[in-house]
Automatic annotation (TrEMBL):
EC numbers, comma separated: 3.4.15.6
Protein keywords: Carboxypeptidase, Hydrolase, Protease
Highest rank taxon of the organism: Bacteria
Coiled-coil zones: none
Protein name, per record: Cyanophycinase
Lineage: Bacteria, Pseudomonadati, Thermodesulfobacteriota, Desulfobulbia, Desulfobulbales
MF annotations from Gene Ontology: carboxypeptidase activity; peptidyl-dipeptidase activity
Organism in which the protein naturally occurs: Candidatus Electrothrix aarhusensis
Length: 138
């Protein structure tokens, strides 16, 4: 869970601080008021530092329904942004001093709206017609 970090300093090493969250899903970091407050850089820093983590930016008037199968479905009128670092090829996060700007290659971004979903286990975007992985196999 992010507990401190100014939006404008999101891509400066060490300026975003985290702590243990609510424990809903291991390896998932949530950020709120995401688009409205320009918090994209905060999640990119967290995911660059922890590439196995998935960042979920939830905008105002939006939410996600956590399902037991490791997927989420977006509800509401806003957006949910997924930041996936599993394909990061390189970054300077280890080499720079605190406060230095972060460079990173191959961060995967997904923009979801009402009815769309995401499969955390398989790291897949789910369109409304296939937001239930069980339906794909039918």
């Amino acid at each position: 869970m992010i507990y401190e970090g100014k939006s404008e300093e999101g891509l400066l090493k060490g300026r975003v601080l985290t702590t243990s969250g609510f424990g809903f899903m291991e390896g998932i970091v949530f950020d709120t008021h995401f688009m409205t407050r320009g918090r994209f850089g905060r999640l990119v820093q967290i995911v660059t530092t922890n590439p196995t983590c998935i960042g979920v930016g939830i905008d105002e008037d939006s939410g996600v329904v956590l399902k037991g199968d490791g997927t989420v479905e977006v509800i509401g009128t806003g957006q949910v942004i997924i930041v996936d670092g599993s394909d990061i090829a390189q970054s300077n996060i280890i080499d720079i001093k605190p406060g230095g700007p972060i460079a990173v290659e191959n961060v995967r971004i997904h923009s979801l709206v009402n009815g769309y979903g995401y499969d955390f286990k398989n790291r897949r975007f789910l369109a409304p017609s296939n937001n239930n992985p069980e339906q794909i196999d039918d």
